[in-house]
Design a protein that fits this description.
Layout lengths: L10 H18 L5 H15 L2 H13 L4 H6 L11 H14 L10 H10 L2 H24 L17
Helix pairs in contact: 1-7, 2-3, 2-5, 2-7, 5-6, 5-7
Length: about 160
């Protein structure tokens, strides 16, 4: 199955992608740990079935120092002992924020309380933005049929304005 469109070579797609990347840079510059950002993006991408994004965030997480054990257990984080309480709160927020249509209340008060316990307001703003952006990225990639397997860490570093 070939990609339907190359958003990086299409003039409109490239313009949107560049701006999208720059929003991501603002999130990366927050005090939210890089490895946590990658775990959150990986989990949302797994839920959304985005092979391109699972490939990207697995490799970026490994480059940020994540272990194979933790990466392999992200999909089953609730049944794992390798994640901190803060990471578990962020992963719960990622799941609930990704599965909005599946939950009548969206993000639960319990999850919000756990997130608020472990993160300050700037970090929460970064988490919310991160979850929104990865869900959008998953949709770009799935709709365009971008396939996983060819990503190399840092390959988009030249996109910034």
């Amino acid at each position: 199955m070939e990609p339907r469109i190359n958003l990086m070579t299409n003039p409109i797609g490239a313009k949107v992608s560049k701006r999208f990347y720059n929003v991501g840079l603002a999130i990366q510059e927050s005090s939210l740990p890089k490895s946590l950002q990658e775990l959150v993006e990986l989990r949302a991408s797994q839920i959304n079935g985005c092979g391109w994004c699972v490939d990207l965030h697995t490799k970026e997480a490994a480059a940020a120092g994540e272990t194979a054990l933790r990466l392999n257990l992200v999909a089953a984080w609730r049944e794992s002992t390798v994640f901190t309480e803060a990471e578990r709160a962020a992963l719960a927020l990622a799941e609930e924020g990704t599965r909005l249509a599946d939950a009548h209340e969206g993000v639960s008060d319990e999850t919000w309380a756990q997130v608020s316990k472990h993160f300050d307001e700037d970090q929460i703003a970064a988490l919310i933005s991160l979850i929104a952006m990865i869900n959008a990225a998953n949709r770009f990639a799935v709709i365009a049929r971008m396939r996983g397997g060819s990503y190399a860490p840092g390959m988009f570093a030249g996109l910034a304005d």
